[in-house]
């Protein structure tokens, strides 16, 4: 890493704001929004979890992979994303194409992911 890539102490806040805009929003979070956000989060999870499990099975993976493919992308995007309205997660075309692509993956990737298949 060069010196130009390392942010100065005075610019750490600007660096974090650019790298993870969700964290800066979290610092200004209002407690009055918590109940509405919890209801929205539970509503999304109620739909996303079964869909993720179904898509994992359709793709030939262990159903336990489904929650990871549904919830973790949402958490990552909440921290690193910039759009307030965006759909993230498994999709039917991906679930359909993945079993066809699976035999073509390099052996190293298959070995690494075999514990989830």
Would you report the number of β strands? Answer: 0
> Largest sheet at a glance?
none
User: How helix-rich are the residues, as a percent range?
Assistant: 55-70%
Number of helices in the DSSP assignment: 6
Rounded average pLDDT: 76
Radius of gyration: 19 Å
- Secondary-structure-based class equals mainly alpha
Indicate the overall shape: globular
Q: Identify low-pLDDT runs.
A: none
Structure description:
It is a single chain. This protein has 117 residues and is mainly α. It has one domain. The protein contains six helices and no strands. The model has no long low-confidence stretch (mean pLDDT 76).
Question: Summary?
Answer:
By secondary structure, the protein is an all-alpha fold.
List the helices and strands and how they pair.
Layout: H1 12-19, H2 21-27, H3 34-58, H4 65-80, H5 92-101, H6 107-113
Give descriptors for this structure.
117 residues, mainly alpha, 62% helix, 0% strand, globular
């Amino acid at each position: 890493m060069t010196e130009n890539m390392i942010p100065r102490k005075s610019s750490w806040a600007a660096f974090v704001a650019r790298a993870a805009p969700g964290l800066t929003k979290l610092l200004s979070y209002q407690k009055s929004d918590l109940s509405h956000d919890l209801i929205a989060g539970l509503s999304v999870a109620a739909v996303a979890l079964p869909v993720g499990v179904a898509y994992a099975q359709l793709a030939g993976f262990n159903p336990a992979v489904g929650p990871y493919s549904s919830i973790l992308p949402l958490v990552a995007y909440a921290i690193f994303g910039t759009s307030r309205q965006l759909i993230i997660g498994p999709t039917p075309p991906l679930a359909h194409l993945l079993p066809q692509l699976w035999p073509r993956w390099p052996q190293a990737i298959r070995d690494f992911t075999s514990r989830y298949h």
